[in-house]
Amino acid sequence: MAGDAHTYLCEIMEAEGLTPPSTLELNGRVHRYCGKDERNPNTWVKGYDNGDGTAGGRFGNWRLGIDEPWFFRPASLTRLSREELEELRRRNEEKRKRAEEARIAEFLRVSATASKILRQASPARPDHAYLVGKGVLPFNLRQSGESLLIPVRDAEGVLWSLQFIDPSGSKRFLSGGRISGCYHSIGPKPVDVVLVAEGFATAATLCEATGYPVAIAFNAGNMLPVSQALRTKYPSATLLICADDDRQTPGNPGMTAAHRAADMVGGVVVSPDFTLIDSTAEETP
Predict the structure, then answer these.
(1) Strands 184-186 and 238-242
(2) Which residues contact 64 (CB under 8 A, 6 or more apart)?
(3) For FRET with 85, which of 46, 142, 171, 264 sits at 20 to 30 Å CA-CA?
(4) Per-residue pLDDT tens digits for 56-79
(5) Which of 225, 222, 226 is nearest to 214 (CA)?
(6) What percent of the chain lies above the pLDDT cut of 90?
(7) Closest CA to 164 of 200, 111, 134, 127
(8) Cα(33)–Cα(27) distance, rounded to whole angstroms?
(9) What pLDDT, on a 0 to 100 scale, did the predictor assign at position 275?
(10) How far apart are the C-alpha atoms of 194 and 187, rounded to whole Å?
């Protein structure tokens, strides 16, 4: 059954323009990997074996803001009786409960690991190659070896994970940590305006230019959960959702995610203006 489900999943992921996994594990956990032309493991799949010949879950890509459900049912599967359906629902609910308990336990384990790493780290060096290349200050980042460390915290300040950035700009998180709705703040304490951006370099540039506090959401798919968390924490603040304009990527996931977040929390979208760059390019012989 897993083989047929894998074949089906490959077809629908390819239709979405995503690279499917080489194998499919139906254990209810999120499995991350690098898709085609990706340096970072932004593509992910989660699957469940329902125990009745069917399987399902979700798949997506954090960079592109894709998060879609999938469900596989073989053509040969017979219709279940009402009693069998009730038993199936009960077993599936137990599986989901166990998977959620395991997920929370993993979050707590990663949180403890992140705390230990952060305690042992040093303040980030301003001459780190990534910071120099982006032309930004380190703000409150830490550094371990050659990697910059960006804390991933919830709205209450609880540390759940870390993002690592190496000198070349490659990024990764501690495996299994909580990310959704979590962010890292730079700049002054929020008063009446809070900016939300995807990555550290963009956030640092915005903070230096405006003097406003900025929350780093880490990826397009997290823009809405972070904006919702900030709206709850700062109900009267103006939220400026600073979009990554991925204009050369189909569907422009950065702009799409920013507008969705702004619509849901009553925020305002701010985006780059490429007019001058485009006009200069057109004039170049």
Answers:
(1) unpaired
(2) 18, 42, 220, 249, 251, 253
(3) 46
(4) 999 998 878 888 889 888 876 666
(5) 226
(6) 61
(7) 200
(8) 16
(9) 56
(10) 10
